[in-house]
Amino acid sequence: MPARPTRSSELRIDAAALPRSQELGRLLAGALRPHAGLAAAVAVGRGVLDDPGVMRDLWLVPLRDFVALAVWVVSFLGDEVEWRAMRFRVRDGKLEKI
């Protein structure tokens, strides 16, 4: 019986066929990243949860990613933190209770 290539073999062959350019790799990773999130949302929503509304609400996935990015960026603008109903200020890399 002939040996059958595994999935990892196919991926190695695909990777070997690509040019060894870092710029191309970054471009491909950036282009495929949003599609991976959408594919995961569909796989979990339809395949695991069997939710018929997944396709209707699929446009919300990139919107959620954008909002999460905005919250992350804005988090660097302040120097105060509230944790367990106590307020702290970040100064010289350390927390000082306010």
What does this structure look like?
This protein has helices spanning 7-17, 22-48, 60-74; strands at residues 80-83, 86-91, 94-97. The chain is of the alpha+beta class and 98 residues long. It has one domain. It has a three-stranded antiparallel β-sheet, with no helix packed on it.
The helix/strand order is: HHHEEE
Regions with pLDDT < 50 over 5+ consecutive residues?
1-13
Report strand %. Answer: 5-15%
Q: Indicate the overall shape.
A: flat
Radius of gyration computed on alpha carbons: 22 Å
Strand line-up of the largest beta sheet:
1-2-3
| Fraction of helical residues | 40-55%
Mean pLDDT: 76
Instruction: Give the total of beta strands.
Output: 3
Helix/strand-derived category reads alpha+beta
Number of domains: 1
> So how many helices?
3
Task: Give the terminus-to-terminus CA distance.
Answer: 73 Å
| Biggest sheet descriptor | 3 strands, antiparallel
Summarize the structure.
This protein has 98 residues and is an alpha+beta fold. The chain has one domain.
Task: List descriptors.
single chain; alpha+beta; disordered N terminus
Provide the fold topology.
Layout: H1 7-17, H2 22-48, H3 60-74, E1 80-83, E2 86-91, E3 94-97
Antiparallel strand pairs: 1-2, 2-3
